[in-house]
Write a structure and sequence with these properties.
Blueprint: E1 4-9, H1 15-28, E2 33-38, E3 49-53, E4 59-65, H2 71-81, E5 86-89, H3 97-110, E6 114-119, H4 129-137, E7 140-143, E8 156-159, E9 180-183, H5 185-193
Parallel strand pairs: 1-6, 1-7, 2-4, 2-5, 5-6
Antiparallel strand pairs: 3-4, 8-9
Helix pairs in contact: 2-3, 3-4
Length: 194
């Protein structure tokens, strides 16, 4: 039975590496997979394919989705072209609520497992829209753990200014990885209090 999975964590927990390892396992068993990542992670604006890349150097080409991408239609077309074992999505926090519902349809109507990987919350501690919908609709939730500098589980993503001070306001999405640090809740709120 196919399911919708949401694997979430704070930044730098290894979500992309886990995704690529799982996709590799499907391939070793002769099963084709379809990989997706957000347009926000495309190497060149306007390119047709992006890349899922982990901090440890694993990478694979991936289809790109943006706000208006009809994921159900694209996945259905790919399935009609030949056997498809599973669908993997990186940066799932950037999905719209409608796209998450479309992924649920992929599971329910097309019978394909869909494995989503992404952040749960933004730098303010608020849920991303895609993450909120995945938390509501996913059949299986899995927290991928990472640690704060104090050794506790890191659950929050702190955005920092060049001088290292915490950013408390601003646009929800800013993809420069060097501007973020994963913290436990205690140190996150201490950093915001400044």
């Amino acid at each position: 039975m196919s399911k919708l999975y949401f694997n979430y964590s704070a930044m730098n927990a290894g979500k992309s590496a886990i995704l690529l390892q799982a996709a590799h396992n499907y391939g070793e068993r002769g099963m084709e997979v379809m990989l997706w990542t957000s347009v926000l992670h495309a190497t060149t604006p306007g390119e047709a394919m992006g890349q899922i890349e982990s901090r440890i150097g694993l990478r694979a080409p991936a289809h790109i989705y943006a706000d208006g991408t009809d994921l159900f239609a694209a996945i259905e077309a790919r399935q009609q072209a030949g056997p498809l074992g599973a669908v993997f999505l990186d940066e799932a926090q950037f999905l719209s609520a409608g796209q998450v519902r479309d992924l649920a349809r992929v599971v329910d109507d097309l019978g394909l497992p869909v494995l989503c990987y992404g952040l749960r919350t933004d730098f303010r501690g608020a849920l991303f829209p895609g993450s909120a919908e995945l938390l509501a609709l996913a059949d299986h939730l899995r927290e991928v753990r990472t640690v704060c500098h104090c050794g506790r589980k890191a659950t929050m993503n702190l955005r920092r200014q060049p001088d290292g001070s915490a950013v408390a306001e601003g646009e929800q999405v800013a993809v420069e990885k060097s501007d973020y640090v994963s913290l436990c809740r205690k140190h996150f709120f201490e950093a915001l209090a400044g």
